[in-house]
Specification:
- It is a single chain.
- The protein is of the alpha+beta class and about 160 residues long.
- The chain has one domain.
- The protein contains five helices and five strands; from the N terminus they run ααβββββααα.
- The chain has a five-stranded antiparallel beta sheet with strand order 1-2-3-4-5, with helices on one face.
- A hairpin with a 5-residue loop joins strand 1 and strand 2.
- Helix 3 runs antiparallel to helix 4 and helix 4 runs antiparallel to helix 5.
- The protein is elongated.
- It starts with a helix and ends with a helix.
- The model has no long low-confidence stretch (mean pLDDT about 80).
Protein backbone atom coordinates (compact mmCIF):
# COMPACT_ATOMS: atom_id res chain seq x y z
CA UNK A 1 0.00 0.00 0.00
CA UNK A 2 2.84 2.35 0.83
CA UNK A 3 4.55 1.67 -2.50
CA UNK A 4 1.35 2.52 -4.36
CA UNK A 5 0.95 5.79 -2.45
CA UNK A 6 4.56 6.78 -3.19
CA UNK A 7 4.10 5.85 -6.84
CA UNK A 8 0.96 7.98 -7.13
CA UNK A 9 2.62 10.95 -5.42
CA UNK A 10 5.67 10.55 -7.65
CA UNK A 11 3.54 10.50 -10.79
CA UNK A 12 1.57 13.57 -9.65
CA UNK A 13 4.79 15.47 -8.93
CA UNK A 14 6.19 14.49 -12.32
CA UNK A 15 3.00 15.59 -14.12
CA UNK A 16 2.98 18.86 -12.15
CA UNK A 17 6.61 19.62 -13.00
CA UNK A 18 5.99 18.79 -16.64
CA UNK A 19 3.07 21.21 -16.80
CA UNK A 20 5.05 23.97 -15.10
CA UNK A 21 8.24 23.53 -17.13
CA UNK A 22 6.70 22.71 -20.52
CA UNK A 23 7.90 25.21 -23.08
CA UNK A 24 5.35 26.42 -25.59
CA UNK A 25 6.42 27.27 -29.10
CA UNK A 26 7.48 30.84 -29.62
CA UNK A 27 7.22 30.91 -33.41
CA UNK A 28 5.35 33.91 -34.73
CA UNK A 29 4.44 35.32 -38.12
CA UNK A 30 6.48 38.54 -38.62
CA UNK A 31 3.96 39.95 -41.10
CA UNK A 32 1.27 39.97 -38.39
CA UNK A 33 3.32 42.15 -36.03
CA UNK A 34 2.78 45.92 -36.00
CA UNK A 35 5.17 47.91 -38.20
CA UNK A 36 6.61 49.75 -35.16
CA UNK A 37 7.86 46.49 -33.68
CA UNK A 38 8.80 44.95 -37.02
CA UNK A 39 11.02 47.97 -37.63
CA UNK A 40 13.27 47.21 -34.65
CA UNK A 41 16.55 45.85 -35.96
CA UNK A 42 18.19 42.91 -34.20
CA UNK A 43 20.60 42.27 -32.62
CA UNK A 44 19.48 44.58 -29.85
CA UNK A 45 22.01 46.62 -27.91
CA UNK A 46 19.87 46.68 -24.78
CA UNK A 47 16.48 45.47 -23.63
CA UNK A 48 15.00 46.48 -20.28
CA UNK A 49 11.59 45.94 -18.77
CA UNK A 50 9.83 47.44 -15.81
CA UNK A 51 6.80 45.92 -14.16
CA UNK A 52 4.10 48.01 -12.53
CA UNK A 53 2.04 46.69 -9.66
CA UNK A 54 -1.11 47.35 -11.73
CA UNK A 55 -0.08 44.67 -14.26
CA UNK A 56 1.40 46.93 -16.93
CA UNK A 57 4.78 46.14 -18.45
CA UNK A 58 7.14 48.81 -19.78
CA UNK A 59 9.75 48.03 -22.43
CA UNK A 60 12.79 49.98 -23.57
CA UNK A 61 14.61 48.45 -26.53
CA UNK A 62 17.73 49.91 -28.11
CA UNK A 63 17.97 48.45 -31.60
CA UNK A 64 21.15 47.66 -33.52
CA UNK A 65 20.93 50.99 -35.36
CA UNK A 66 20.81 52.88 -32.02
CA UNK A 67 17.12 53.79 -32.24
CA UNK A 68 15.37 53.54 -28.88
CA UNK A 69 11.85 52.17 -28.78
CA UNK A 70 9.67 52.48 -25.70
CA UNK A 71 6.32 50.85 -25.28
CA UNK A 72 3.97 49.56 -22.64
CA UNK A 73 1.84 46.45 -22.59
CA UNK A 74 -1.39 47.05 -20.74
CA UNK A 75 -2.73 43.81 -19.37
CA UNK A 76 -5.95 43.06 -17.55
CA UNK A 77 -7.13 46.67 -17.62
CA UNK A 78 -10.38 47.52 -15.88
CA UNK A 79 -10.61 50.94 -17.50
CA UNK A 80 -12.42 51.87 -20.69
CA UNK A 81 -9.90 54.66 -21.31
CA UNK A 82 -6.94 52.25 -21.24
CA UNK A 83 -8.09 48.92 -22.69
CA UNK A 84 -5.89 45.83 -22.91
CA UNK A 85 -3.29 46.26 -25.59
CA UNK A 86 -0.04 47.98 -26.27
CA UNK A 87 1.00 51.60 -26.61
CA UNK A 88 4.22 52.93 -28.16
CA UNK A 89 5.73 56.37 -27.86
CA UNK A 90 8.67 58.29 -29.25
CA UNK A 91 11.58 57.72 -26.88
CA UNK A 92 13.75 60.44 -28.39
CA UNK A 93 11.61 63.20 -26.83
CA UNK A 94 12.23 61.99 -23.27
CA UNK A 95 8.55 62.03 -22.36
CA UNK A 96 5.33 60.29 -23.33
CA UNK A 97 4.39 62.28 -26.42
CA UNK A 98 3.32 60.99 -29.78
CA UNK A 99 1.65 57.91 -28.28
CA UNK A 100 0.44 55.31 -30.78
CA UNK A 101 -1.87 52.36 -30.17
CA UNK A 102 -0.41 49.09 -31.43
CA UNK A 103 -2.36 45.94 -32.26
CA UNK A 104 -1.81 43.33 -29.59
CA UNK A 105 -2.37 39.93 -31.14
CA UNK A 106 -1.02 36.45 -30.43
CA UNK A 107 1.96 36.90 -32.77
CA UNK A 108 2.94 40.17 -31.09
CA UNK A 109 2.72 38.50 -27.67
CA UNK A 110 4.93 35.61 -28.84
CA UNK A 111 7.46 38.06 -30.27
CA UNK A 112 7.60 39.93 -26.95
CA UNK A 113 7.85 36.69 -24.96
CA UNK A 114 10.86 35.76 -27.13
CA UNK A 115 12.37 39.19 -26.52
CA UNK A 116 12.03 38.79 -22.75
CA UNK A 117 13.24 35.16 -22.81
CA UNK A 118 16.36 36.03 -24.82
CA UNK A 119 17.39 39.39 -23.38
CA UNK A 120 16.24 39.73 -19.78
CA UNK A 121 18.36 37.88 -17.20
CA UNK A 122 16.58 35.41 -14.90
CA UNK A 123 14.96 37.07 -11.93
CA UNK A 124 11.76 38.55 -10.60
CA UNK A 125 11.40 41.25 -13.30
CA UNK A 126 11.73 38.69 -16.08
CA UNK A 127 9.22 36.34 -14.50
CA UNK A 128 6.74 39.14 -13.79
CA UNK A 129 7.07 40.24 -17.40
CA UNK A 130 6.34 36.72 -18.60
CA UNK A 131 3.26 36.58 -16.34
CA UNK A 132 1.93 39.75 -18.01
CA UNK A 133 2.71 38.53 -21.52
CA UNK A 134 2.11 34.80 -21.33
CA UNK A 135 0.46 34.02 -18.00
CA UNK A 136 1.46 30.35 -17.98
CA UNK A 137 1.36 28.47 -14.66
CA UNK A 138 5.15 28.11 -14.75
CA UNK A 139 5.49 31.91 -14.85
CA UNK A 140 3.21 32.34 -11.85
CA UNK A 141 5.10 29.57 -10.02
CA UNK A 142 8.42 31.31 -10.70
CA UNK A 143 7.12 34.62 -9.28
CA UNK A 144 5.80 32.83 -6.18
CA UNK A 145 9.18 31.11 -5.85
CA UNK A 146 10.98 34.49 -5.89
CA UNK A 147 8.63 35.89 -3.24
CA UNK A 148 9.00 32.83 -0.99
CA UNK A 149 12.80 32.87 -1.38
CA UNK A 150 12.93 36.58 -0.51
CA UNK A 151 10.80 36.05 2.61
CA UNK A 152 12.88 33.07 3.72
CA UNK A 153 16.07 35.05 3.21
CA UNK A 154 14.58 37.92 5.23
CA UNK A 155 13.57 35.61 8.10
CA UNK A 156 16.91 33.83 8.16
CA UNK A 157 18.81 37.10 8.29
CA UNK A 158 17.02 38.19 11.50
Amino acid sequence: MRKIAFSIVGILVLVGLTLILWRTGSAYEPSKIDAHLRGMRAPYRAVTISCCICGHLGFRVVAADGKTNQFAVIARSRSESAPDGMWMWDASSGHDTNVTAVAMNADTRRMLVGLVDQHIPPGLDRDQGLVVLRGDPRDHAAVVGHVVAARLKERLSK
